[in-house]
Each structure stands twice: as C-alpha cells, then as structure tokens.
Amino acid sequence: MGDTEELISSLPKEIGLLSSSELCFYQNFWCTTKLLPHVISFQKHFQAQHQDIIVASVPKCGTTWLKALTFSIVNRTRYDFSTTPLLSSNPHHLVPFLEVDLFAKKDVPDLTTIRSPRLFATHMPYAALPESIKSSGASVVYICRNPFDAVVSLTHHLAAFKSDSEVQTLIEEAFEKYFNGVVGFGPFWEHVLGYWKESLEKPNKVLFLKYEDLKEDIVGEVKRIGEFIGYPFSEEEERRGVIQEIAKLCSFSNLKELEVNKSGAYLEVYPHNAFFRKGNVGDWADYISPPLKQRLENLMQEKLGGSGLSFKLS
User: Fold this and answer.
1) Which residues are catalytic?
2) What is the distance between the alpha carbons of residues 81 and 254, in angstroms, rounded to a whole number?
3) For the segment 22-36, what is each residue's pLDDT rounded down to a tens digit?
4) Which class for 245: exposed (0-12), middle (13-18), buried (19 or more C-beta within 10 A)?
5) For helices 3-10 and 36-45, what crossing angle results, to 10°?
C-alpha cells in the first residue's frame, strides 16, 4: 500500500449528500475518496506564478458565471464579442479546475506552457491551498452564495436524473447534512470564513464576492473584479458600454442558450447543461418548511456570528 492509500485508509469517512460518494475528512475539510489523491498531488506539485488568477468557490455557488466573467475581462482585447471562445467552449474548459481536472488527468501536469495570465479554478478551502499560491503574487477571486440556495442547487446537480418531486423528498436530508458540514470541500462555514478572513487581512490577495451582489449590481461587481485582477476598465471602455457587454455575454440566460452549453460534458461526466438550472436567488423557499428554515437560520447566525459576514436570503 502506497503512502497516499495508507493515509486515505486512516481518515474518518462519511457518506456524502444523497449517498452520492464516500467522503474523507482531510486537513479539516471533506473530500471524496476518489478525488483525494489528486488533491494531494495538487498541493504537493503546483507552482503558482505571480500573474496567475485563481477562481475559488464552494461548489454550486456561481462558479460557472465567475469563470465566464473572469475569462472575458482578461481577454477582452484579444477577442471581440463575436469571436470569444465562450461561444464555442463551456467556461469550465476555459478556466479548468486544478484538483478536479488538471491534476486528475495527470499526477504532475506541465502547466508552464500556458499563456500568462494563467486562469485556474479550485474548490479547495483557503487553508488547504498549496503554499505557492499563498506566497506568490497570484490573485484569488472567491465567490459564494447563501447556503440555502447552495443546498438546493447542489441537490439538483447531484440528483440530475431525478424528478422535482423526488428531489423534494431528499431536500430536507440534504439541508441537514449540508448545514452540519458533511459535504464535499465543506464544511461550508469554514470554507467561506477562511476566504472571508483572508480577504480582510490581505485585500490585495483575495477578492470576496457574493452571488447575490453580482445579481444585484453586475456592472459594479465586474468593475471590482477587473480592478482587482489588474485589468481595470478605462473611462473610454465604460463609455462604450464594454462592462455591460461582458455582463450580457456572461449572463445566465445567454450562456444557457448557447449551443455549446446544451450538449457535451465537462470531464466526460458533468453535462454542460447541468451547470445552468435556474440561477435565481431565493429558490430555496419552495423546498423547506418554516420551522426548519428558522432552525437553520439560527445555526447560520451561530456559525457566522461576530465575523461580519452575512447573507441575503432573497
């Protein structure tokens, strides 16, 4: 038995949401047993460059949207809106996951030939990121959303082939597990607080975004992202409506209707259309009872209390 296999066999284990996979508790977060060797390889071998831009997120919290926006902001002078690769490639192909994709395909992938700035993504908690990301000039753009909507989105994603009525019967169990922290890359609370605290202590290193804020003021948030990653919009670009064009290109409704996102799959496992369900804020209200909502709200306040971080639920 190799070192990694030995480590995995020694870790605490739980069954994930909807019995979808076995999870191991590693470095204070839950990770699927299957993915853990790739996570360890990523931690050990990834060498960040100062110009790298890392899109980080809790799963199902606006990752696809943020990938599309970041790619478009960085490449806006390289492509126009009729030639952008977003028209022919899903955002997950353009901003690949490190631990889920690149290090899963090869133990030590050669990433040195990728054009700078390299755009990557991760679902890893901040504390578990490779040291080279933390100590380099790499920028980390983080997105999260209120955990009520995150649960509903994740449950639908994991139950892609089940009907809405079947999902309804699973949802309360999913809420219990999610809010108790037993979910891939979770607990949610530690994940968001790790990036939140880092964004307060090192605002030049981590930009903390909320899905709900992007929905409310996409132009303002795109400006923030551009400034943070070193691609600010000029006054002339603002006058020409470039920000609005990027927001329109990357909007949920536009991405969902592109042919490339109606067929095909990411990593041959995740159908492209599974990344575009509703994209609404407050969708959770159709799924849980008022008593459960109150109990979970109390738990959320307890977990986030004193941090300065809060979420809008609708």
Assistant:
1) 123
2) 12
3) 999 999 999 999 999
4) middle
5) 120
DSSP string, 64-103: HHHHHHHHHHHTTTTS-TTT-GGGTS-HHHHS-BIIIIIH
Query: What is d(CA 137, CA 248) in angstroms, rounded to the nearest whole number?
Result: 30
Q: What is the dihedral of CA 129, 132, 134, 136, to 10 degrees?
A: -150
Query: How far is it, in rounded angstroms, from Cα 270 to Cα 251?
Result: 20
Q: Give this prediction's pTM.
A: 0.91
Sequence-separated (6 or more) residues with CB below 8 Å from residue 128: 27, 28, 29, 39, 43
Q: Please, which pLDDT band fits residue 164 given cuts at 50, 70 and 90?
A: low
Q: What is the DSSP string of 215-252?
A: HH-HHHHHHHHHHHTT-PPPHHHHHHTHHHHHHHHTSH
In the chain, % of residues over pLDDT 90: 68
Measure CA of the first residue to CA of the last residue in the chain; give whole Å.
50
Q: Which secondary structure element, helix H or strand E, spans residue 55, and what is its range?
A: strand 53-57
- What pLDDT sits at residue 14? 92
Q: Distance between CA atoms of 241 and 40, rounded to whole angstroms? A: 44
Q: In the predicted model, is pLDDT for residue 276 greater than 50?
A: no
Phi/psi of residue 149, each to 5°? Answer: -70, -35
At 26 the three-state DSSP class reads strand
Size of the chain, expressed as the number of residues it contains:
314
221-239 residue pLDDT tens? 999 999 999 999 999 999 9
* pLDDT given at position 173: 82
